[in-house]
Amino acid sequence: MTCRILVVNSNTTDTVTVRIARAAEAALPPGCSIEAVSAPFGLPLIVTRADWSVAGPATVAALAARRGQFDAAVVACFGDPGVEAARELFDVPVVGISEAAFHAACMLGRRFGIVSFTAALKPMFVDCLEHAGLAGRCAGFRMGPAFTGDPGQVAEERRDMILQLCRESIEQDGAEVVILAGGPLAGLAPLLAPDVQAPLVDGTAAGVRLAAALAGLAPTRRAHRPRPLSGYEPELTRLYAGEGG
Known about the structure:
Blueprint: E1 3-9, H1 14-27, E2 32-38, H2 49-64, E3 72-75, H3 83-89, E4 94-96, H4 97-106, E5 112-116, H5 122-132, E6 138-143, H6 154-157, H7 159-171, E7 177-180, H8 189-192, E8 200-202, H9 203-215, H10 234-240
Parallel strand pairs: 1-2, 1-3, 3-4, 5-6, 5-7, 7-8
Helix pairs in contact: 1-9, 4-9
């Protein structure tokens, strides 16, 4: 199988994009390739609902800039900003890492825990769970305090804390599977796995695997009514207008 997968980091921090790219490459099925890109505008870290709203147009703009150059896409931001809009606008599968992680976890155990580096993300994660219809499968959240450092270094700086939170999720919340939530934690799951007594799910890895599988199903494009769009990136404006790439 040959499949070109575009992986979009919905924030503007290139060090996070490098981390995501490494995790994506490690998960690639044979014959597939990836390109990982940062959002062309927006925020260095997506934390709040307001951030998520800003990140949606930035994510779709990144996809539009490479239209025709990929067979499937992964939005590597927990919260999946712009995913549903992209599914209406593109004729290839678009997968969000939170959705991919939730469904992968459901197939690995009955109840999953969600672990991340800051509790500020929880409201957005709750929204995602409810939207996916999987809130009942979640054993709970274990998250760290506020974070104001380099998003590209949070996995290293909070590695010990994340490991402890994973153990608490299993031992105290009854999680049978633990999701490490957030693009900045991409690639951390295999490093912690030997010290955790339950499967760990990396959303980036799950997203890449699922995107590659969906690319072979030849999905049908949804009807999109072209309309004029102003004030956005030229590629996004042409995409929304239904013009060629």
